[in-house]
Write a structure and sequence with these properties.
6-stranded mixed β-sheet; 39% helix; alpha+beta; 23 strands
């Protein structure tokens, strides 16, 4: 039995290695013009089949023309990455921010992956921001702080202006919004660079600081550098007492509880949800939500608004800057603390079939497919019960489409909301409600997500047969009961404030400062 198990393990490893090798060879090889054109037809068919608002911002005739032009422009074989670079800019013409095309990246065998996990790429330690048409390093999680406050001029032999211009063509905002592209191209620059270049071991970055140029070489380095020399003296720690062990366990348990409630990002050593009072009198409450994804949000909001009610807070600041979105259930729950009358958070979501959730599960990861297959009767039944047909269209009903009641401890004081181009998806949806009801003063810049909703909810992941590029296609139109004209723009601020690099270097929050001055005056 042990011998058989050993043979199975060996065969499994060999098969996996061979599979990785074959996949890498396929994406690096040149694909025929015929097969590439077939991939274009395939992705367009998938969009027409699954995307409920494909022609919301770009007409069918225009999109047909662009797809046809792309097919005609491919006259020679291309590998998968080169094909991604010509396909992505065309798909962005749909102008739906949740729709994306990802390149086929090199895969690694288990042994290689294990070795890679022991290293980190110094490039990924840097936080970038695109301000005043320049790319700046505004922070780092690494030890070298000399990057901070420097303008990035070149990476290897390519000028940043050229890279930025190119990367902006490979992703879309909702509709005709422009603030998302300027924000996202900076915030996610390292991700765009990886999609462009693939795996690299090192790169040279040319930076500018106070008119002086300098070059930094960024490499993959070991996560655990050993100390050189044996000068340190090892001191044996005394064994902790039972009381100390008990206290340590209690602290660890409390820490885990706090991490779950606020959502803790280990890599960045920061919380997803933050709440505090500004000033000594507790008259100004500040809540910063980085995303509506991680953590036990109900406990966090219950505790926060209980504190606000007890302190009789008069001014509330909700910071949604750089919040890329998340769960509809969370933003609905949060919104119920800002209203004092019944409300409906979202409309029934337009979909293209009666089984959107099942389609999502069967196009996801292997584990999700197994789960979908195992519980297919239940999932399909739930889909059919939640999906209704009206005027030859299908609509899926979330529980947030029902009339909801406000929370007992709903906040009635004055409210401000901070927004910017990276306020996207769910953060735009809750902003739409607050803006439409004139519940808050908005400060910052137009949200990257559309006022009139977005195509998101659940997604179909489709892998193109030849090039192995992956498309992420939203399956549901998520929108509030409120609409604005013209369509295709975000929630706009009442007070426009654009941060400068001087603000970043001096660590001044110009948007928040304006709100505090408005309150105190």
């Amino acid at each position: 039995m042990n011998k058989s198990f050993f043979i199975v393990c060996i065969l499994s490893v060999l098969t996996s290695c061979k599979s990785v090798k074959n996949y890498n060879a396929k994406i690096e090889s040149l694909h025929s013009v015929k097969n590439l054109r077939q991939d274009i037809d395939d992705i367009y068919r998938q969009l027409q089949k699954n995307h409920p608002k494909l022609y919301q911002y770009t007409s069918k005739s225009v999109l047909d023309f662009k797809i046809d032009s792309l097919k005609k422009s491919i006259t020679m074989p291309l590998n998968s990455r080169a094909f991604y670079k010509v396909l992505a800019p065309v798909i962005t013409n749909v102008r739906q921010g949740h729709l994306s095309i990802s390149p086929a990246n090199k895969r690694f065998a288990k042994k290689e992956s294990k070795a890679l996990k022991k290293k980190m790429f110094e490039f990924y330690n840097l936080d970038f921001e695109y301000i005043d048409n320049k790319l700046w390093v505004v922070n780092t999680t690494g030890k070298d702080s000399s990057f901070i406050g420097s303008e990035v001029v070149k990476i290897d032999n390519e000028f940043i202006d050229d890279l930025i211009k190119t990367y902006k063509t490979r992703f879309a905002s909702d509709g005709y919004n422009k603030t998302l592209k300027n924000r996202a191209v900076g915030r996610y620059f390292s991700s765009f660079y990886y999609k462009d270049k693939g795996y690299v071991d090192s790169l040279k970055m040319t930076l500018k600081n106070k008119d002086s140029l300098f070059v930094k070489t960024l490499k993959r380095i070991s996560k655990n550098k050993k100390r050189v020399g044996n000068d340190s003296i090892k001191i044996k720690k005394p064994k902790p007492t039972k009381a100390q062990v008990r206290i340590a366990k209690a602290k660890k348990k409390q820490k885990k509880k706090e991490n779950r409630k606020r959502g803790f990002f280990i890599k960045r050593n920061q919380y997803n949800r933050n709440f505090e009072f500004i000033g000594k009198d507790s008259l100004v409450a500040y809540m910063n939500i980085r995303s509506f994804t991680k953590g036990n949000y109900k406990r966090f909001y219950k505790e926060s608004f209980k504190k606000i009610d007890s302190a009789k807070t008069k001014h509330f600041i909700l910071d949604l800057r750089d919040n890329g979105g998340g769960r509809v259930s969370e933003i609905d729950y949060l919104y119920s603390y800002f209203v004092n009358k019944p409300y409906r958070f979202i409309e029934p979501s337009e979909v293209t079939s009666r089984t959107p959730v099942f389609n999502y599960m069967m196009s996801g990861s292997t584990g999700l497919k197994i789960l979908g297959s195992a519980f297919a009767p239940f999932v399909l039944t739930a889909d059919i019960l939640h999906t209704k047909k009206k005027d030859d269209k299908f609509y899926f009903k979330f529980k947030q489409t029902r009339v909801r009641k406000p929370k007992d401890l709903n906040y009635k004081g004055k409210m401000y909301v901070l927004i910017n181009g990276n306020s996207f998806s769910a953060s735009s949806l809750i902003s739409t409600h607050l803006k439409a009801e004139k519940r808050a003063v908005f400060v910052g810049e137009e949200t990257g997500g559309a006022y009139n909703g977005c195509v998101a909810g659940f997604y179909k992941i489709y892998e193109l047969p030849t090039s192995k590029l992956k498309a992420r296609i939203g399956l549901m139109q998520i929108e509030t009961p409120y609409k604005q004209q013209p369509d295709g723009y975000g929630v706009k601020p009442d007070v426009v404030i654009n941060p400068t690099i001087a603000d970043r270097l001096s660590k001044q929050d110009s948007e928040l400062n304006w709100i505090l001055q408005d309150i105190y005056k």
